[in-house]
Design a protein that fits this description.
single chain, mainly alpha
Length: 139
């Protein structure tokens, strides 16, 4: 009875190819490979979108650093105030406000920059086609 149960269990398992993967997985990978291919323009736009995201992140970090430094220098150096324990919640509120401003700069920079990048890249490609007299009526 054990041998028959073992044979039934073997029949229930999917067959694996010689390379160790399932045959269905190869078909899925091949079909996904065609879907993942990008045009040159899509690749460049993706690269540009990543660059815009990084630039927005850097600008938001610089904004937060400048705001914190301005607050610290103005409060503790120019006005010569002391860091008092009872004023700590007020200072923390300022730092949270500066962080929120930095996040706002980041959120605004990324979506605003991408359409601009797409427009510039399309305008550049049309200009190059005009120079080369490369026109197509039908795809």
């Amino acid at each position: 009875a054990k041998q028959q149960d073992g044979a039934a269990a073997m029949e229930m398992q999917p067959l694996k190819s010689a390379e160790g993967g399932e045959g269905d997985d190869k078909d899925k990978k091949k079909s996904n490979m065609h879907k993942k291919e990008k045009s040159v323009l899509q690749g460049k736009l993706t690269k540009l979108a990543v660059q815009i995201g990084k630039a927005g992140l850097v600008m938001s970090a610089i904004t937060v650093i400048i705001l914190v430094l301005y607050f610290a220098i103005d409060t503790f150096v120019v006005n010569k105030k002391q860091w008092l324990p009872e004023c700590t919640p007020v200072y923390v509120q300022y730092f949270v406000k500066f962080f929120i401003i930095g996040v706002t700069v980041l959120v605004v920079a990324v979506p605003e920059g991408l359409p601009l990048a797409v427009t510039i890249s399309l305008a550049y490609s049309v200009k190059v086609r005009n120079i080369k007299n490369n026109y197509r009526r039908k795809m």
